[in-house]
């Protein structure tokens, strides 16, 4: 993996509720309305679980992209990991960690990805893609935490 970032979102919600909101297909779609994202195969509504796949279709940078992700690890309500099975990235891994706090909970998103196209992809990762994805994850986190 050549690019990565970490986002931390505090929420007044209990950790179990934030965990389930983060794996809700329906809330993910609500949080990504700007890109017209749709769940087109696999688990397309409700809560996704370990070993299950979802195929997303969305428009980013004026291009329609399709990506299938699988939940490769789930430790309720502490953590789950989704990884790209097929899609636009050479590799994509998103670890969602959760912890209770005195005022609710905190979600920490750790994203690692590698763009295709070798050196050209590396340049795009650093110049555009990392910041774009980080903003997307920050907005999604705020939405899930009830702070949008």
Largest sheet: 7 strands, antiparallel
Side by side, the strands of the main sheet go 1-7-6-5-4-3-2
Through-space gap between termini: 30 Å
Number of strands: 7
Class from secondary-structure proportions: alpha+beta
Query: Total number of helical segments?
Result: 3
- The stretches of 5 or more residues where confidence is low (pLDDT under 50) are none
Q: Order of SSEs, N→C? A: EHHEEEEEEH
Structure description:
- With 148 residues, this protein is an alpha+beta fold.
- It has helices spanning 15-22, 25-31, 118-144, and strands spanning 3-11, 38-42, 53-60, 63-75, 79-86, 91-101, 104-114.
- A 7-stranded antiparallel beta sheet has the order 1-7-6-5-4-3-2, with helices on one face.
- The longest helix is centred in the last third of the chain and has 27 residues, at 118-144.
- The protein is globular.
Brief summary:
By secondary structure, this protein is of the alpha+beta class.
Question: Topology, pairings included?
Answer:
Elements: E1 3-11, H1 15-22, H2 25-31, E2 38-42, E3 53-60, E4 63-75, E5 79-86, E6 91-101, E7 104-114, H3 118-144
Antiparallel strand pairs: 1-7, 2-3, 3-4, 4-5, 5-6, 6-7
